[in-house]
Amino acid sequence: MDSLQYIASLIAKSPAWAQDLEKFAREHRVPIIDQISLQLLLQLVRLKRPERILEIGTAIAYSTLHMHEAVPDAYITTIEKNEKMYAIAAKNIARFKKSERIELIHGDAAEVIERFPPEKTFDFVFIDAAKSQYLRYFQSIAPHVLKGGVIVADNVLFKQFVAQPEEAPKRFKTIVKNLRMFNEYVMKNEDFHSSLAPVGDGLMISIKRT
Ligand SMILES: C[S@@+](CC[C@H](N)C(=O)[O-])C[C@H]1O[C@@H](n2cnc3c(N)ncnc32)[C@H](O)[C@@H]1O
Question: From the CA of 85, how far away is ligand 1's center (Å)?
Fold first, then answer.
């Protein structure tokens, strides 16, 4: 057993609602956050206790509903571009009666964010959508993040190819190039304290300084 398998073996079984969504994701090949990254994401949410969360990339609302469970009083806005995913997420949010606290927006996240009025602010952002667009998401959401607010971006090591771009198959070259640009930009950005945690597929954790 390696360390990751060991950690996975220690994680408590998901609640029934989450097992149901995990089964759906497996059967329909919907990518959702891996369990170890999820545990860290939820710990960060619990530590920060945000009032307003933005999620970029809802899929079936698996991570959305988990964040809601971690901080039930927070308002969550989540954006999904794919029409089918949006419909499934809407159904799941309604089925678990969470529509009062979770606002689901259908659209391209970059365009949706760019239309946000300046007074729309968040104290926690989870980026988990098109990997090539991470820099655009980060730059457009940064002005809406309050001082001390947190931005978490998943998959920033993308299948380990980000550290070893020469190993990446041709179809992943653009994603890898863009994620490398994203990682460098964020780590050098003086408006944020950032840390890249080699957890799961790589989690970039940034805290706004000003
Ligand atoms: C990895 S999945 C999200 C998984 C989800 N956060 C979870 O862990 O349960 C990525 C999702 O982002 C969506 N997506 C991709 N590009 C997008 C964009 N430009 N705007 C909004 N959503 C996008 C995809 O349709 C997909 O459902």
Answer: 8
CB-ligand 1 contact for 128 (6 Å cutoff): yes
Residue among 29, 79, 82 to mutate when testing ligand 1 (max atoms within 8 A of CB) = 82
Q: What is the mean pLDDT of the chain?
A: 97
- Residue 84 Cα to ligand 1 midpoint, Å, equals 11
Quick check: CB of 39 below 6 Å from ligand 1?
no
CATH number at residue 11: 3.40.50.150
pLDDT tens per residue, range 149-175? 999 999 999 999 999 999 999 999 999
Burial of 24 (0-12, 13-18, 19+ CB in 10 A): middle
Per the structure, the count of domains in the chain is 1
Ramachandran assignment for 59, one of left (phi > 0), alpha (psi -120 to 50 degrees), beta (any other): left
pLDDT in tens, 50-109: 999 999 999 999 999 999 999 999 999 999 999 999 999 999 999 999 999 999 999 999
3-state SS string for 45-83 = HHHHCCCEEEEECCCCCHHHHHHHHHCCCCEEEEEECCH
- pLDDT at res. 210: 87
82 lines ligand 1 (CB under 6 A): yes
Is the distance from the beta carbon of residue 154 to the nearest atom of ligand 1 less than 6 Å?
no
pLDDT of res. 28: 98
Domain range enclosing 35: 3-208
